[in-house]
Amino acid sequence: MDSDNGFGHKQLRSQLSWWVFGLVLALILVYALRGYLGWIVFGVFLYFVARPVARHLRQRGFSESTAAVITLGLVILPFVGILIVLASIAIVQLATLEATDFELIAETLFPDGIPDTVPTTEEEVYPFVEGLATDPTFGSVIEWGGDVLSAFVTAAYNIFITLLFVFFLVRDEQRLAEWFRVEIIGERARVDEFARAIDKGLSSVFFGYTLTILAIMVLAAIIYTLLNAIAPAGVAIPQVLLLAIITGLASVIPLIGRNIVYAAIVVYLAVLAIQTNLISLWFPVAFYVVMGVLFDGVIRTYIRPSLSGRMFPTGLVIFAYILGPVVFGWYGIFLGPLLMVVASLFVQMELPRLLHGDAN
Questions:
Q1: GO CC terms for this protein (predicted)?
Q2: Which of 96, 85, 83 is nearest to 210 (CA)?
Q3: pLDDT per residue as tens digits for the range 140-155
């Protein structure tokens, strides 16, 4: 009996030691990778975007590696390229804003503290620009070019690591899922059910809502540009890309989100038309017909039903997208919905069981 107790205590100490070791290792990994959290979450988002395509290719007889390479080359790389182009043009257009507004924008993008190298206030922005324009010495140009090159190299490296992470997730997803089910979940049916619900929820949100927003942004930018091509003299849609981005983000507000944007643009165009030529009033009318009637009809009939899931209340999705970037920074648009999915499913599936003492 004493021997059994001694063996049991020894086994308990061994398990406790391994748990402590695992906890310390996890803390070290979290600390070491804390700076890459945004890129990891972005990689998870790209994985859910790429997964349906890769699975379809595997069903067509392609190997796991070949399907991952094709998906990465034909889907993910062009998709990331579009995001980079949109972000770059948006930054250029943001530069036309007043310097006094730049500080608020920078604080939103860098919630953990604005880097010292980024000029934010009016007192910092104007000397920075004027100094480079009035005294373009070799040293100032080299210093500015070095900062730009350093930022570019860092971003390129992070994107490369993210794409590599996505490649291995797409290629090895079946082996990872099997290992997780056998070695981690085991016979615990509740954990398996919860994990499957999270997977389905993330697929719905990432491949659904986010792609819907991005699709609306891209299509709105194209339509705004085409409309400007036929706009009367002196009457044009300003800041096309910024308005396209706002149109996409406003889509998370049901029924009225995009209509508020359309109404603001119509009023602006109408004022311009009245100030220049009353005949030009046809353009704001045409704008609303194209965007408020035709484009919105396509979104409601085809884009949203085919991309967006209905697993979660619209209000939760709205707060996830609105508060995510404010709380976490640029990657909050991906991390916010991820946390919303996990928390919402926990409240729906597990919290009632815990409150009612259901052990099954």
A1: membrane
A2: 83
A3: 555 555 665 676 778 7
> Quick one: 59 and 153 in the same domain?
yes
332, 326 contact by CB (below 8 A): yes
User: How many residues does the structure list for the chain?
Assistant: 360
Residue 284 near residue 269, CB atoms below 8 Å: yes
For helices 37-59 and 77-94, what crossing angle results, to 10°?
Answer: 140
Per-residue pLDDT tens digits for 70-108: 988 888 888 787 777 766 666 666 555 554 444 544 554
Last residue of one domain, picked from the residues 137, 168, 186? 186
* Domain count for the chain: 2
Residue among 253, 251, 281, 250 nearest 268 (CA): 281
Cβ burial 142-162 (10 Å sphere, 16+ → b, else e): eeeeeeeeeeeeeeeeebeeb
Number of Cβ within 10 Å of residue 126's Cβ equals 12
Residue 8 in tokens: 């049991």
- With respect to residue 44, please indicate whether it lies within any of the assigned structural domains: yes
Q: Which stretches does DSSP call E strand in 106-147?
A: none
Last residue of a domain, one of 148, 170, 186: 186
Query: 253, 238 in Cβ contact below 8 A?
Result: no
Domain holding 48, by residue range, is: 36-186
